[in-house]
Write a structure and sequence with these properties.
single chain; alpha/beta; ABC transporter transmembrane region fold; Rossmann fold; 2 domains; six-stranded mixed β-sheet; four-stranded antiparallel β-sheet; 19 helices; elongated; binds adenosine-5'-diphosphate; binds magnesium ion
Length: 604
């Protein structure tokens, strides 16, 4: 008895696709499958030959027993040992070789399926990592996780057991049918008759199980989604005391899942006995007809024994073969989804003919840029901006004005819809990712720490940095004191007890990282907003160091940060509405002057 495989997450039903789209998707999966199998053609062919040989050896047993009885025994009674010795030797040889070939192809087919899975797993990981931010903003991490886990699992199940069992089962039953006909055609006809009820039983099982397995997959996917959402949103769950409601919802989902599993078990409870019954009746009929013919002398007793042994074995692989369709279906669905991810193109492709950048100076220009995330909804309608090398620019404006979008365009997480963003006169699209990432660094509010030590996390900015450089970077941004105070100082594991750092401290670590990276252009997108006022004061001083000698764009929601800027830009609805030095704007009568006055009043 097999259990259902979990595939995908609810809401990815394909029933609303047109015929043409389904064909394109099927071709896409076949292409992927072909590319996975192609490097292993020779091995696959070899394995197939082995399976055929192995099955023939396994099927030869009952025929040899029959021959032993019908030829060997009479000869033995006449003191002729030869025939029985030969059949016993052949039986033994078939048994030993059969076992060896089973071992051989089991290993070979496992190697093939492991190689395919390894290849697929690596491809999914490398490809999703290469895809642009644009993809990751729309494709949730939950879906990527199910590509890597449950989808690959159902493919593994198909490769590991499904295909093996289908091929073996088909060969086994096929060779047995041939053997029965070869030994005694009348019994062959009896076996053929049993195929009629068998066909209906298997059809009924496939139809029912297909429905049940689909329901089961959806139920378990819902269960997973509910679980993941509860756990990732556990703070909100606790803050709003949603536990009781979650408990009820989860209880219902668990019950649905249990119900459908109970139904699946009932289905097997009918299918398995059905199979056994058809098998037993077939053997009984073959025994009745064969017995009568042995009595009348038209069939030898050994032949009857072979036929009966064959008839029993014929039904052995039926359950696995009936199950194949289910594992095939979930694997096909999984392959379709995986091939979909693999054929996603990065929104910001690497240039075919990159222009080398030797030591960027940091002159950033927006040249007649238009940008939208979705067609028809311009975020930056028509944007021109020139930031000379070394300038510190503060960017302010209300939420949704397009500040972060501007930052993402400078870091080339997106490309402009039209126009160009240039660095030192070179279109960002002509730079290699390597040059670009070295020249331009963005620090955002979500200062992410990877597992590892504090020093490792700072060294991300410059992988070959010495511990001295790491310390200097931490000192420069004012992070040194708190790092020294951690249990193991710079070697403290950020995920271990005692290594837990606050949001503000995380932010300081990410500043040290950026300082160490020493880019020509640094962008801080609300990077200080998770800091409290005293830490922010501290960072203010650090910022002076961090921003010296480089181009900087600071997006700040606290106006105190603006004081260290050479130039302030006020942005509204994707346009720059004010542009000047802090002193000019504060002294003027525009939006910034109003904002600044209101802010100053709030301080006293
Ligand atoms: N990934 C995205 N997809 C679609 N629209 C987006 C996306 N990110 C931002 N926007 C939209 O672009 C506009 C500008 O957003 P953003 O640049 O984040 O503003 P700000 O950082 O100034 O608050 C907003 O209207 C926002 O809804
Ligand atoms: Mg923003």
């Amino acid at each position: 008895m097999s259990t259902a495989t979990v595939t995908g997450v609810a809401g990815e039903d394909r029933s609303d696709l047109s015929k043409g789209e389904s064909r394109v998707i099927r071709q896409r999966s076949l292409r992927l499958l072909g590319s996975l199998v192609a490097p292993m053609k020779v091995k696959v062919t070899w394995t197939l030959v082995l399976v055929v040989v192995s099955t023939i050896l396994q099927v030869s047993g009952p025929a040899l027993i029959g021959i032993g009885i019908d030829r060997g025994l009479p000869a033995l009674l006449k003191q002729d040992w030869m025939p029985i010795s030969w059949t016993v030797a052949a039986y033994l040889a078939a048994g030993v070789l059969g076992a060896l070939t089973i071992a051989w192809y089991t290993i070979a087919s496992a190697q093939i399926s492991q190689a395919i899975l390894f290849d697929l797993r690596t491809r999914v990981f490398l490809h999703t990592q290469r895809l642009s931010l644009e993809f990751h903003e729309s494709y949730t991490s939950g879906r990527i996780i199910s590509r890597q886990t449950s989808d690959l699992d159902s493919i593994r199940e198909l490769l590991d057991s499904g295909i093996n069992q289908l091929v073996q089962g088909m060969l086994y039953s096929g060779f047995i049918a041939i053997a029965i006909f070869a030994v005694d055609w009348v019994s062959g006809v009896v076996l053929l008759c049993s195929l009629v009820p068998l066909y209906f039983l298997v059809r009924w099982f496939q139809k029912r199980s297909q429905v049940l397995f689909r329901i089961s997959r959806v139920a378990s996917a819902k269960l997973i989604v509910h679980f993941v959402e509860t756990m990732t949103g556990i703070r909100a769950v606790k803050a709003f005391r949603k536990e009781k409601r979650n408990e009820r919802e989860f209880g219902e989902l668990v019950e649905d899942y249990r119900d459908v599993n109970a139904k699946t078990i009932q289905l097997f409870g009918l299918f398995d006995p059905g199979l056994v019954m058809i098998g037993n009746i077939t053997v009984a009929v073959a025994l009745l007809i064969g017995g009568l013919r042995v009595a009348s002398g038209s069939l030898e007793i050994g032949a009857l024994l072979s036929v009966l042994l064959y008839a029993r074995r014929f039904f052995d692989p039926m359950e696995e073969m009936a199950m194949f369709y289910n594992s095939y279906q979930s694997a096909a669905a999984a392959l379709e989804k995986i091939s979909g991810v693999l054929e996603e193109q990065p929104g910001v492709p690497e240039p075919a003919h990159p222009i080398k950048l030797d030591g960027a100076r940091g002159h950033v220009v927006f040249d007649d840029v238009n940008f939208h995330y979705k067609p028809g909804r311009d975020v930056l309608p028509k944007f021109d901006l020139d930031i000379p090398a070394g300038q510190t620019v503060a960017l302010v404006g209300s939420t949704g004005a397009g500040k972060s979008t501007l930052a993402k365009l400078i870091s080339r997480f997106y490309d402009p819809s039209s126009g160009a963003v240039t660095l030192d006169g070179v279109d960002l699209r002509d730079l290699t990712q390597e040059d670009l990432r070295r020249a331009i660094v963005m620090v955002t509010q979500e200062a992410y720490l990877f597992s590892g030590s504090v020093a490792d996390n700072i060294a991300l900015g410059k992988p070959d940095a010495t511990i001295e450089e790491i310390r200097r970077a931490a000192q420069a941004v004012g992070a040194h004191e708190f790092i020294e105070a951690l249990p193991d100082g710079y070697d403290t594991d950020v995920n271990k007890r005692g290594g837990r750092v606050s949001a503000g401290q995380r932010q300081l670590i990410s500043f040290a990282r950026a300082f160490l990276a020493n880019p020509a252009v640094l962008i801080l997108d609300e990077a200080t907003s998770s800091l409290d006022i005293p830490s922010e004061r501290l960072v203010q001083q650090a910022l002076q160091t961090l921003l010296a000698d480089r181009t900087a764009v600071i997006i700040a929601h606290r106006l105190s940060t603006v004081a260290i800027a050479d130039r302030v830009l006020v942005m509204e609805h994707g346009r720059i509405v004010e542009d000047g030095t802090p002193a000019e704007l504060i002294g003027g009568t525009g939006r910034f002057a109003q904002l600044h006055a209101a802010w100053r009043d709030s301080l006293v």
